[in-house]
Design a protein that fits this description.
Distance between the termini: 12 Å
CATH architecture of the largest domain: 3-Layer(aba) Sandwich
Radius of gyration: 17 Å
Order of helices and strands: EHHHHHEHEHEHEEH
CATH class of the largest domain: Alpha Beta
Strand content: 5-15%
Helix content: 25-40%
Largest sheet: 6 strands, parallel
CATH topology of the largest domain: Rossmann fold
Length: about 210
C-alpha cells in the first residue's frame, strides 16, 4: 500500500461504541410506540437519521429524536462510552508515524467532549466536524479541508471509517478503509474501499 502522511478516523462506530449507545436509546424510545427497529435497518437507513425513514409523521419523528438526543448527550450515557476493541493501541502506534485527524459528522463540542473524556485528544491535530461544511461528509470539500490543513495531497491521506458516508472520501482522492460495525455490515461498500474486519489489522495493512 502506498505511503501516507495523514490518517483520518471516523469517531462514532469506528473508534467509540457510540453507535451502539444511540441504537439502544432509539430502540427504547420506539418501543414506547410499539415500533421495533432491527440492527440491519438501523445500519442501512443511516444510523442517527434512521428515525426519519420509519414512516412516522414529522411531529412524532422530531419528538422521538429530541428525546433520543437528550439521553444520548447526557452525562449518564457519556459514562458508558467505550473504545472499540483494539482502538487505543492502534491510535498510539500510528501516532508515532502519521498525522492523525478526526473526520466525523458530529458536533465539534461533542467530539471534543468524547476525546477529552477518553484521553484521546492529544493524538489528533485536526478535528473535522458536522458544522465544518454544508452536507458534512457527503461534500467532497469536507475531505479536501483535512488534506489542506496538513498541506498534503488527498492521495497522501487515508480515511478509516465504518459507514457509507466515510466512503465519500474516495471521491476526493483519499484512500478508504472500512471496518464495518455490526450495524453497517449490511451495507454494500464500494470496491474502491479496503474492507477490514477489525481495526487491529490496520497496522498490518500499513506495515507499521
Amino acid at each position: 500500500m502506498q505511503s501516507f502522511k495523514v490518517i483520518a478516523f471516523d469517531l462514532d462506530g469506528t473508534l467509540l461504541n457510540t453507535d451502539e449507545l444511540y441504537f439502544q436509546i432509539l430502540k427504547h424510545e420506539l418501543q414506547k410506540l410499539d415500533i421495533f427497529i432491527t440492527e440491519q435497518k438501523y445500519g442501512l437507513l443511516g444510523l442517527d437519521d434512521s428515525i426519519f425513514h420509519l414512516g412516522l409523521d414529522k411531529q412524532t419523528a422530531y419528538k422521538i429524536r429530541r428525546n433520543v438526543l437528550k439521553k444520548y448527550y447526557s452525562d449518564q450515557t457519556l459514562k458508558k462510552i467505550r473504545f472499540k476493541k483494539g482502538v487505543l493501541k492502534i491510535i498510539h502506534l500510528l501516532s508515532k508515524k502519521y498525522k492523525l485527524a478526526i473526520a466525523s459528522g458530529e458536533k465539534f463540542d461533542q467530539i471534543e467532549r468524547y476525546l477529552k473524556y477518553k484521553n484521546l485528544i492529544s493524538y489528533f491535530q485536526f478535528i473535522g466536524h458536522g458544522k465544518m461544511i454544508k452536507n458534512r461528509k457527503s461534500n467532497p470539500e469536507y475531505f479536501r479541508m483535512i488534506a489542506n490543513f496538513f498541506k498534503s495531497r488527498p492521495e497522501e491521506c487515508l480515511m478509516v471509517g465504518d459507514s457509507i458516508f466515510d466512503t465519500q472520501a474516495s471521491n476526493t482522492g483519499f484512500n478508504v478503509v472500512i471496518i464495518p460495525s455490526k450495524f453497517t455490515k449490511y451495507c454494500a461498500f464500494s470496491e474502491n474501499c479496503i474492507i477490514l474486519d477489525n481495526i487491529k489489522k490496520l497496522h498490518l495493512l500499513l506495515s507499521v
